[in-house]
Design a protein that fits this description.
By secondary structure, the protein is of the alpha/beta class. It folds into two domains: about 25-220 and about 385-475, Zn peptidases (Aminopeptidase); about 220-375, 2-Layer Sandwich (Alpha-Beta Plaits), CATH 3.30.70.360. The chain contains 15 helices and 20 strands. The protein has helices at about 1-25, 30-45, 55-65, 140-155, 180-185, 185-190, 245-255, 265-275, 280-290, 295-305, 305-315, 350-360, 390-405, 420-425, 455-475; strands at about 75-80, 85-90, 100-105, 125, 130, 165-170, 195, 200-205, 210-220, 220-230, 235, 315-325, 330, 335-345, 365-370, 375, 410-415, 430-435, 440, 455. The strands form five sheets. The protein has a six-stranded mixed sheet, sandwiched between helices. A hairpin with a 2-residue loop joins strand 15 and strand 16 (about 375). Helix 2 (about 30-45) packs antiparallel against helix 4 (about 140-155). The longest helix is centred in the first third of the chain and has 22 residues, at about 1-25. It is globular and about 75 Å long. It starts with a helix and ends with a helix.
Amino acid sequence: MIRRSLNFLSLAVMAVVIMAQVLSAQVDPKTRQLAHDIFQQLIEINTTDSVGSTTVAAEAMARRLRDAGFPASDIVVLGPNPRKGNMVARLHGTGLHKPVLLIGHLDVVEARRSDWTTDPFQFVEKDGYYYGRGTQDMKSDDAVWVTEFIRLKREDFKPDRDLILALTADEEGGTSNGVDWLLRNHRDLIDAEFVLNSDGGGVDTKNGKPEIVSMDASEKLYADFQLKVTNPGGHSSLPVPDNAIYHLSDSLGRLERFQFPVELNDVTRAYFERMTSIESGQHAADMRAILSQPPDPEAVARLSQLPLDNAKLRTTCVATRLEGGHANNALPQSAEANVNCRILPGHTREEIRQALIRIIADPKVAVSYDDHGRVLDSAPNGQALPPVKLRPEVMQTLDEIAGEMWPGTPVIPTMATGASDGVYTNAAGMPTYGISGVAIDTDDVRAHGRDERLRVESFYQGVDFYYRYLRALTSGH
């Protein structure tokens, strides 16, 4: 009986091994090694805004493309200053259709070694994961893009349109956003009929099992606001009720307890409708209940406790940084906080600034707009753009490839709860679709956090996905 159990166990282990091999079988060993090496190289180039350089990463990727046979004339690295370089490369097609632009950012969020169990700028493989800053957001996808360009070049593949790859600076922060800069200064290099943005969408999994393949058709509007209190200060032995830090903390408490109203648009309504067929029990019932008019308040309250659902339901504003005082033995002369907001389409940054003033309800707290370090008395009035029109070739190809790779997993257009460089390309009249084949467990999202990591096989599935997707999309069928 024990031996029989061991035989069954051995068979089960073999099945798991075979399944893992099947998942990566479409990535041949040579391509797998290439993708690994590019991924490692990108992770180990520090591209933070404080001390890093996207130029170093851009030049490294340009060198790889040149070594793979791309003419030097089809690759440029350029930017507004020596540290903020962007790489633009072109794979020429037949010209049957206008080009498609592929975008991904090279910069990453700051990471301190003391916060991590591994060095964030060393590519570490352990326990079936790759660790390092950018493994999820988004050097994995950058490595996928470069691998696909090299792979297609080696195969002498002729797409029915030019493929343009732009790897850019300052999506996560800084004052030199690469997509914005290229559009304003070198539009001809990246002009396209539409855009694929791998900093959006992806495969949502639970314990490695795919649940949905998402495609970002809309995104929120990003905004930072400064809350500041000033007063004369004084000696700490003579406390007064008019304390800048107390005023600020009271204001942040009111903001913490406030919730913006629920608003659904065409994309988020379709998202919750389709998710009801995937979720079960109370969660599915609550998703159905919020689609009624008016939404069921108890269902709203329950969904609001879930970070992802809450972010899709409403505008969110949260304190992210705090600073106050100037000496341990002195009353603070000033205290300030940064409040980061992700704003639903249809609303403006200035509208939300005015809402913050009403929420805080304290004339001693100044609410200003922080434009990359420039503190302004008012914010822009431009609204987040409406959802893009779903192009048949984009969606049909996505359905086809997702069906091959993750059978039975629904493809669901959604609204990104964050923000991406798609805000610039959409505004420039180039419809942008957030599509990625990299799978991340919904309970293991570590982008911007400590010990950022990605499943090893998830990365190679992403390589396989975009190879299939780009060939199918541009084969002229």
